[in-house]
Amino acid sequence: MIRITSKLPQTGTNIFTTMSALATEVGAINLSQGFPDYTCSPELVSLVNKAMKDGHNQYAPMAGVMGLREQISIKLEKLYGAQYHPDTEITITAGGTQGVFTAISAAIQPNDEVIVFEPAYDCYAPAIKLMGGIVKSLELAPPDYRIPWDMVRRLITNKTRMIILNSPHNPTATVLQQSDIDELTAIVKDQDILILSDEVYEHIIFDGQTHHSMARYEELRKRSFIVASFGKLFHTTGWKLGYCVAPALLMQEFRKLHQFLVFSVNTPMQYAVAEYLKDENVYLGLADFFQQKRDYFRSALAQTRFELLPCSGAYFQSVRYSNISDEKDTEIAPRITREFGVASIPTSAFYSRGTDHQVLRFCFAKQQETLDKAVNKLMKI
Fold first, then answer.
1. pLDDT tens column, 282-298
2. Which residues 6+ apart lie within 8 Å of 113 measured at CB?
3. What's 344's domain CATH number?
4. Locate the Aminotransferase class I/classII large domain: which residues (predicted)?
């Protein structure tokens, strides 16, 4: 008999895989998983081809192509007034998830406590548990999903090692406000607490609001791993290209693990993105691009029986269905997929206790034609 003891015995196939597979099975429109159904920039593709033809097809440096790290450094200083040294404080990763996993792995020891705000993207807790850490969950509730900082203070102990933040937030589409930054700063000041800031949607923020990156604030920057994604930025989720920035002391530990997880990531794409990033309009225009999609989708959804929740960032729209059905979200989401041909994500999947607020999440990073077809189907509910 061959046996293996699972390190994640409670973990099965994630909800994104499940709902996307169901959408494919029944031929439904897939608004569940967060990926675009339109092409990326032809110029960016040409730059990748050029990098390949120029011979950039072997291993990149472990920390990433220096030209790309330099462009990231320039971008961070322009946007947030933060200086990150390309040589010691920036590492290119195989997507945002790898950056998150590596940061947690580098920082968390057995019995360290990590505060996670739920609903939470599903890669945080498993990484913490694999390192022997303890997940301290704090549940947020619709419609605004605001962080109750008085409760955060109650969760802090002498074992608290990290707080994980995600803004703009997946799945709730909320963003941190200045008041949140003030509260967070007061909590961690003079404490040995790290921050992991998942900022993969940093450029998708609406209505003229500010993205409060940890890089903006010295007290937070000096203790933060910040993870970002070129997949979200350039509509290339399949390229699995991202980066992590952190002070040199933290990045030194990050790279110790990074070199044994992936060593380095896709070389020609790094050269292409380094060149593409020289035009700041490719990221500065992203908010307007997605706000048009958000406004269009919300206007169309308003014709359905769903109740729209606020959407301030990222490319997800959450809706309540309590005036439609009393079903659990894990029941109604598959039913709508099968019977009406539109796949969504039940947001209870983002809570460790499966808390059900009767909320579904739709992704609107789609062509207008796709959104029109989806809404026409949803109007029949």
1. 999 999 999 999 999 99
2. 133, 134, 136, 155, 157, 159, 160, 161
3. 3.90.1150.10
4. 29-378
